[in-house]
């Protein structure tokens, strides 16, 4: 990332929005409206700082993020269906373990609780902001279904909620005239101008970018495991190359983001238990240019290029741009080799982990054919056991955390059922 180049929360949300919308446009557009309702409700309450409102509104935009995993998307926009909790549980765990706002996970967890249904249940985990979010979510779903949002309609159709929430909504509208903006769609600029007031630190940019990277979990568990190992292997290679801490951090982030374009690839291709057809392979290849486009306009073009050029080859035979030779920096070459090594080490339904000898042979042949960097390849081969052992140690904590989500999800689902 270029020095002294500011990245705003607005830019970061736009980039995450762009990526996840490539799966299904409905949920985050709904999230924007819910976030706007939340912003006005919180302002009307008057006891939240700007920083608190920013964080809660970010969570509000992504409150349905778990639905990409649990396939409830069609249920969410139907207010006549019994409210689903699966996506709220999974989404809250994703926020808890893979977002910059882990302490706010219970807002997402409780966003389908209502005063009527959960009055005397699960008070240990209910968040007051989660209850407000539940109300904001309900109001938008009512509007989506009925295409009506008058004050009388709100009073007559919010029976699941106490008068406290209804009066808060009406007070917020009296102060800020926000319902009209919600209906005529002029709210979007106001919401994003609010996000634009917050400049992100370098660490926050990294943290939000990793949230984006791990959102690929909604499409393919194998891809997440691969990404974790690419990051670790690339980092170990870069350390042995003697690169400084700034570049090491850049390589870790780029490696974490290298396959983000796969969020737009159909699951049946990502998870196909066998060789792809020529047509399927062309679709799979598109993840590189999709990732490039997702990460553009965020003032991290160098990180974008290191990550998304991992299929370029020194002889120009790679993709997405057919770059070659000196067009590929040392950082790009390291991540490319980290990607290949992780893929060969990976276990899939159609392959076991390749042996050390087989991996070394493949890498040697690619280097001799001028596909990948010879010096970096030899460095990896000469230090193979050390690099792979250290990489697996580095990846193990994150992998355990990722795999633990499934266990915790089942426990919470059982508790609420």
Automatic annotation (TrEMBL):
<dbReference type="InterPro" id="IPR037522">
    <property type="entry name" value="HD_GYP_dom"/>
</dbReference>
<dbReference type="InterPro" id="IPR006674">
    <property type="entry name" value="HD_domain"/>
</dbReference>
<dbReference type="InterPro" id="IPR003607">
    <property type="entry name" value="HD/PDEase_dom"/>
</dbReference>
<dbReference type="Pfam" id="PF01966">
    <property type="entry name" value="HD"/>
</dbReference>
<dbReference type="Pfam" id="PF13487">
    <property type="entry name" value="HD_5"/>
</dbReference>
<dbReference type="InterPro" id="IPR006675">
    <property type="entry name" value="HDIG_dom"/>
</dbReference>
<feature type="domain" description="HD-GYP">
    <location>
        <begin position="201"/>
        <end position="396"/>
    </location>
</feature>
<protein>
    <submittedName>
        <fullName>HD domain-containing protein</fullName>
    </submittedName>
</protein>
């Amino acid at each position: 990332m270029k020095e002294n180049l500011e990245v705003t929360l607005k830019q970061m949300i736009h980039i995450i929005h762009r990526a996840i919308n490539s799966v299904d446009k409905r949920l985050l557009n709904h999230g924007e409206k819910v976030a706007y309702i939340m912003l006005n409700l919180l302002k009307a309450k008057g006891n939240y700082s700007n920083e608190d409102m920013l964080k809660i509104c970010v969570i509000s935009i992504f409150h349905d993020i778990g639905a990409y995993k649990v396939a409830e998307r069609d249920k969410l926009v139907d207010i006549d269906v019994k409210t689903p909790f699966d996506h709220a549980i999974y989404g809250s765990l994703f926020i808890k373990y893979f977002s910059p706002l882990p302490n706010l996970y219970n807002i997402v967890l409780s966003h389908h609780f209502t005063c009527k249904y959960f009055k005397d249940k699960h008070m240990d985990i209910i968040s007051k902001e989660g209850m407000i979010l539940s109300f904001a979510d309900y109001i938008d779903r009512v509007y989506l279904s009925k295409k009506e949002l008058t004050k009388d309609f709100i009073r007559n159709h919010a029976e699941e909620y106490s008068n406290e929430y209804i009066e808060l909504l009406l007070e917020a509208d009296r102060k800020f005239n926000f319902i009209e903006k919600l209906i005529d769609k002029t709210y979007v600029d106001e919401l994003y101008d609010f996000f634009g007031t917050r400049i992100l630190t370098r660490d926050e940019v990294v943290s939000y970018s990793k949230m984006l990277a791990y959102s690929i979990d909604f499409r393919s568990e194998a891809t997440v495991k691969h990404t974790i190992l690419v990051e670790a292997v690339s980092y170990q290679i870069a350390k042995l190359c003697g690169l400084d801490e700034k570049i090491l951090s850049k390589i870790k982030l780029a490696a974490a983001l290298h396959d983000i374009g796969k969020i737009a690839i159909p699951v049946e291709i990502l998870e196909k238990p066998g060789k792809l057809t020529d047509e399927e392979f062309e679709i799979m290849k598109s993840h590189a240019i999709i990732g490039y486009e997702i990460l553009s306009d965020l003032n991290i073009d160098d990180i974008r290029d290191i990550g998304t050029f991992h299929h370029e080859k020194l002889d120009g035979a790679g993709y997405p741009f057919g770059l070659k030779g000196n067009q590929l920096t040392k950082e790009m070459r390291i991540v490319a080799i980290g990607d290949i090594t992780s893929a060969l080490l990976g276990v899939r339904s159609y392959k076991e982990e390749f042996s050390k000898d087989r991996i070394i042979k493949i890498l040697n042949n690619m280097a001799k054919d001028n596909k990948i960097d010879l010096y970096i390849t030899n460095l990896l081969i000469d230090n193979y056991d050390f690099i792979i052992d250290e990489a697996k140690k580095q990846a193990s904590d994150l992998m355990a955390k990722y795999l633990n989500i499934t266990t915790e999800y089942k426990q919470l689902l059982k508790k609420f059922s």
